[in-house]
Amino acid sequence: MADVPAVLEARRREHDERERRGVGVGVRALGPKNLLAYLALGAVAVYCLTPIYWLALSATKNNTDLFSSFGLWFAHFNLWQNLRDTLTHSDGVYIRWIGNTALYAGVGAFAGTLISVMAGYALAKYRFVGRGLIFTLVLGAVLVPQTTLALPTYLLMSKVSLTNTYWAVLLPSLLNPVGVYLARVYATAGVPDDLIDAARVDGAGEFRIFTRVALPLLRPGMVTIFLFQFVAIWNNFFLPLVVLSDPNLFPINLGLATWNFDPASHELLYNLIVTGAFLSVLPLIAMFLVLQRYWRAGLAFGSVTG
Amino acid sequence: MKTKTAPVAVDVARPRPGPLALLAGARRGRRKLGRRVVPYVFSLPFLTLFAAFFFLPFAYAISQSVFKQQRSGLGLGPPTTIFVGLDNYAKALRDPQFWDGIKRVLLFGAVQIPVMMLVALALALLMDSAVIRFRRFFRLAFFIPYAVPGVIAGIMWGFFYSPSFSPIRQLATTTGLPAPDFLGPGLVLWSIANIATWEFTGYNMVIFFSALQAIPQEIYEAGRLDGLNEVGIALRLKLPMILPALVLGLLFSLIGTLQLFNEPLILTRLSGSITSHYTPNIYAYNVAFVDTDYYYGGAIAVILGLVTFAFSFGFLRLTRRQSGV
Q1: pLDDT tens for residues B158-173?
Q2: Cα–Cα distance for residue pair B78/A90, rounded to 1 Å
Q3: For residue B215, which of B248, B247, B239 has the smallest C-alpha distance?
Q4: Cβ A113 vs Cβ B17: under 8 Å
Q5: What is the average per-residue pLDDT within A9-33?
Q6: How far apart are CA A120 and CA A190, in angstroms?
Q7: Closest Cα partner for A301 from A152, A102, A142?
Q8: How close does chain A come to B111, measured CA to CA in Å?
Q9: Three-class SS of residue A164?
Q10: Residue B91 burial (CB < 10 Å; 0-12/13-18/19+)?
Q11: Cα–Cα distances in Å, from A7 out to A12, A71, A188, B12, B61?
């Protein structure tokens, strides 16, 4: 990451250093005084992880054991059969759902990040008429979430026969006002004006400056925006629920919810629902594990605003 | 940082006197024009999306909300659409089912948000001052639930609550304690609140912790010289410094609470206490798609959008001095 702006890089290093040395206030080591603090944090960690532990464990049980065995320990190990059943149920529709979710979240977050970064960069680095208005629109869109507008969005889409297509989920998912806001913060802090001016003097055009100077500097910030938009689209339920009716277009969320709601078969599907739910959280957990630095950076906005 | 000129590819010869000067002048003019136009070009994709999926739906919902579908006479003929002005809004404001949902999410927020925020704040303060080891583990453990989609969290906790599955009830039964009825009319709202708390406490905690870590350490030395103890430092120094993070956390919780939908909807199959108007969003959804009254459903969506905006905007104004937003 040679392109990380020096300021941010230095701040991060200092932060990691402090974290390693454990420089907080006062207490430095594990002693009786802060044992209580560890107990409190440990208790909350158990609360946070138990349902996921339960989910992982339950994915290894068949339908009978789900009901009859103790919920927090193993019974007959049935994971492989569960996986086979989940992936082949209704002609393998679950595999389609995985593909759909990857498409919605992957393509949506990738394109959405680019769009947000372009707008955020413009807001941060250009003085132009309407800049204040655009920023107000961004904030307004942050304050009124899209969930509120899913219903009229559906009605509008049905006018142009867009409902029940991939576009119906993909296009609205591209709009990411929080991403624009973050991109503006990152561009203000991470792309020095001098650098842009120097590039101009060297005769580079504005687009070239954006793609060759700004984007490389903004790459870490873009990973953060991508990560959060990816999760938001992956988690979105209301929009697909409203605009889709063909199960072949469903994301995993909506698909599992229909299995969960199906009164005729849900008793038989419990192990499939549990296994499907477990499978669907794995990619997100893996992403958060691998990209720890980036979600931490994204959630540090509380300390960069103002 | 790299030197200033490094990453820029120089593809154009510098303007030189002579026959090239004219060309260079034209080019410079184009540059200047480009610099004026380019921010609009960069903002255009966002603005297009904003128009298509924010402004237009909102305007459309408003324009539709002044109509109503009516069936003539015996209801045999084709339905006709008639203009009713603000009737749908008046109807919503007098609709006990709509108010029932509004009151429920407000009660939910009045209890769940403070509890979650206090826990998140306490965890962040503890981790900042008293917990040094396993920080990465704790932060990750607290944050993992955020990675679990609301629907999956609803399904998962639904199993935890359901009488035939619940490991909590299994534990209670084996110890001889009365097993709580998580999905009964008395508890189900708080069972949903627990799901929301589980999902978002860690998220808020990480926001607060990041803000705490960004505070320069010298301030604490000054505080200690002034005779403040750890608690005094936490309350008098740390808390005011992370107010912007607190305000943002509260804001997103407020918006999320007013929009409550996924978790109660998922639990409806398990709990008879969750009605078709349990939250305003569930009501709007049911009015539109079950009763197929798009006009009235649209009016409810508009009101909910305006209420959300009023709450969050009012909250920001109230806390403007603290939030710095």
Answers
A1: 888 887 777 777 777 7
A2: 39
A3: B239
A4: no
A5: 55
A6: 12
A7: A142
A8: 19
A9: coil
A10: middle
A11: 9, 50, 12, 31, 46
Amino acid identity at B257: T
Give all domains of chain B, ordered by start, each with its CATH number.
86-149+200-323 (1.10.3720.10)
- CA angle (A95, A98, A99) in 5-degree steps: 90
Q: How far is A29 from chain B (nearest CA, A)?
A: 7
CATH of the domain at A109: 1.10.3720.10
Task: Quote the CA–CA distance of A39 and A108 in Å, as a whole number.
Answer: 41
Using one digit for the tens of pLDDT, what is the confidence trace for B13-27?
Answer: 444 445 555 555 556
Return the residue of A nearest to B49 by Cα. A175
Q: Is residue A298 part of a domain?
A: yes
Tokens of A37: 């603090």
How distant is the alpha carbon of residue A173 from its chain centre? Answer: 12
Q: Say how many domains are in chain A.
A: 1
Q: Are B12 and A151 an interchain contact pair (Cβ–Cβ within 8 Å)?
A: no
Longest dimension (CA), chain A: 74
Interface test with A, best of B37, B132, B252, B304 (most A CBs within 10 A): B132
pLDDT band at A4 (very low <50, low <70, confident <90, very high): very low
Residue A128 belongs to a domain: yes
Can you read off the two tokens belonging to residue B214?
Answer: 């960004």
User: Are A130 and B40 in contact (CB < 8 Å)?
Assistant: yes
Of A287, A146, A275, give the one whose Cα is nearest residue B143.
Answer: A287
Name the residue with higher pLDDT: A14 or A157: A157
Most B CBs within 10 Å: which of A151, A169, A259, as the mutation test of the B interface?
Answer: A151
Quote the ipTM score.
Answer: 0.85
Query: Are B300 and B100 spatial neighbours (Cβ–Cβ below 8 Å)?
Result: no
Tell me the C-alpha distance between A31 and B158, whole Å: 40
- Can you give the residue range of the structural domain that contains A261? 87-304
Binary contact (A277, B156; C-beta < 8 A):
yes
Q: Please report whether residue A75 resides in a domain.
A: no
B95-144, pLDDT tens digit by residue?
Answer: 999 999 999 999 999 999 999 999 999 999 988 887 778 888 998 999 99
Residue A6 inside a domain? The answer is no
